[in-house]
């Protein structure tokens, strides 16, 4: 299988512990238990660029139970109270992500998604009452109507349309200068992954595609998506760009993508960062 | 591509109309505009077993804009006020689904997902205030904090582990008697589709899998999932069933699956219904 960013976490999620009050209390009381703390959504990093874990004794609130390592040590995480991060990545975080070991990035991504969801989800969507953390941080419960709410994972399709040996890349206005990437969009209620790919490519670029082939997936923690990467066949290379969605798009050859991935000075565009599945998609496409 | 249940809707979602107040008003005022009404979560059906559309003049509240057909006729839907359906399917609905044309089932699925989400999401998760329908029914806006909330689509993995020519099927206690299906579970924050498949098969059946191969997807409107179907290779056939998750599981041969799909009297199990991707997964597996 294709390795993607934010995967390969080294904790057993041990989900049976989450709903077991006694097991959870024992994990919290374990003197070996470790804590990841986020500040402004970013983790603390040690001298080697890995996550700097601290003792569970440092916890201020109700930490989230992350799981057990291969020595059965419990791991937890928390965000400082009132210290919510937006969906954007700080410059410091982007530099951290370039260096974080992949397994550490996966665990950080889980923590960033869940803590961000808690920060945005303090009230019951069903009745408006204040909710409380339950199940070791993996849900919120409403004391008024009894509803249980689980962290959102929003499926997003991200895809290359290909036509005559070229692939379609585009850029959003918010991207760094020169960056182009695969087109992407949220899967809507009532459509399959394959239908979402076709709808998004048509909406953003006016291109009809068929034969959608799934390639790989990754979790994306800004704020909490499941990215589903695919390659699809375009019927034509004529573009009608919806500038409300994307700023620009063009067709690139495999050689142009290779130059971009290699960081060539005369490359036609700057590619996405290594931890983004859009880059994996471009790498895999050049290999086909 | 593999055809799956609840796909193939025949409306252009025309998403640009949703956010354009003038275009939306024009669509609502179009005398040709049609309305799907749900009662208890179920659609009205005509004598041929297809969706019975009525005139937009019948709308009571703020209907959801579904899109345009090939004659550019606007289509809308609404649920009667205070008439929310639970995630369960009524017996009448299950009989309807056996007969609904696939494109109609896809549009009904979209409506069922969105109306159910509105019924459960009248308050802002961020601040607790009452929210209002915006964007033609495709979002809710909070007048207090300004948050916009979009319908949830929860990704779910559904998979066959295979070992020595046999595939693993299981049953939940709530299934009809004799029914066995593919194992399934929600994708959690911070994991890929492939990681979710491996975690769920291990949690539910104690089986380690690798080489997860994506097969197909479908939307599932009870209440609003994106089902991602896969086949994976099991390391061994020893089972440790978590009876809190599933009631039973066993390994079946391709011949046993073929007999079940054919409805043979002596079949070892009853298969899932035709509109469920679990059945597609079993059909595809027998063809490999």
Q: Could you walk me through the main structural features you see in this protein, from its secondary elements to its overall organization?
A:
Chain A is α+β, with helices and mostly antiparallel strands and 288 residues long. The first copy, chain A, is 25% helix and 27% strand. In chain A, the strands form three sheets. In chain A, strands 9, 10, 11, 12, 13 and 14 form a six-stranded mixed beta sheet that branches. Chain A contains seven helices and 14 strands. In chain A, strand 6 and strand 7 form a beta hairpin. In chain A, helix 6 (254-261) packs across helix 7. Chain A has helices at residues 15-18, 21-29, 91-99, 102-120, 193-205, 254-261, 277-286, and strands at 34-39, 42-43, 54-55, 64-68, 74-79, 132-134, 139-141, 148-149, 154-163, 166-171, 183-186, 209-220, 225-234, 248-253. The first copy, chain A, is globular, with a radius of gyration of 21 Å. Chain A has two domains: 15-120, no CATH class; 154-286, Alpha-Beta Complex (Nucleoside Triphosphate Pyrophosphohydrolase), CATH 3.90.79. The interface between A and B is large, with 60 and 60 residues.
């Amino acid at each position: 299988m294709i390795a993607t960013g934010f995967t390969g976490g080294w904790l057993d999620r041990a989900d049976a512990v989450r709903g077991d009050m006694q097991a959870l209390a024992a994990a919290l009381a374990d003197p070996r238990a470790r804590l990841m703390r986020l500040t402004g959504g970013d983790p603390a990093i040690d001298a080697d660029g890995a996550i700097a874990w601290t003792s569970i004794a440092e916890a201020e609130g109700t930490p989230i139970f992350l799981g057990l390592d291969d020595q059965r040590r419990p791991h937890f995480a928390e965000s400082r109270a009132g210290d919510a991060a937006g969906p954007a990545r700080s410059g410091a975080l982007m530099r951290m992500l370039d260096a974080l070991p992949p397994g550490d990035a996966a665990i950080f991504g889980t923590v960033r998604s869940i803590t961000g969801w808690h920060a945005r989800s303090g009230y019951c969507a069903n009745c408006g009452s204040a909710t409380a953390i339950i199940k070791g941080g993996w849900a919120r419960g409403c004391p008024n109507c009894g509803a249980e709410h689980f962290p959102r994972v929003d499926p997003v399709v991200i895809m290359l349309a290909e036509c005559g040996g070229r692939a379609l890349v585009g850029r959003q206005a918010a991207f760094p200068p020169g960056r182009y990437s695969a087109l992407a969009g949220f899967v809507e209620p009532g459509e399959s992954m394959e239908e979402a790919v076709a709808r998004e490519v048509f909406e953003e670029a006016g291109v009809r595609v068929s034969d959608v082939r799934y390639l790989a997936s990754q979790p994306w923690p800004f704020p909490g998506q499941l990215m589903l990467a695919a390659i699809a066949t375009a019927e034509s290379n004529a573009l009608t760009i919806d500038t409300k969605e994307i700023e620009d798009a063009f067709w690139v050859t495999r050689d142009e993508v290779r130059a971009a991935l290699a960081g060539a000075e005369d490359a036609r565009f700057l590619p996405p960062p290594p931890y983004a599945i859009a880059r994996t998609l471009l790498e895999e496409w050049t290999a086909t």
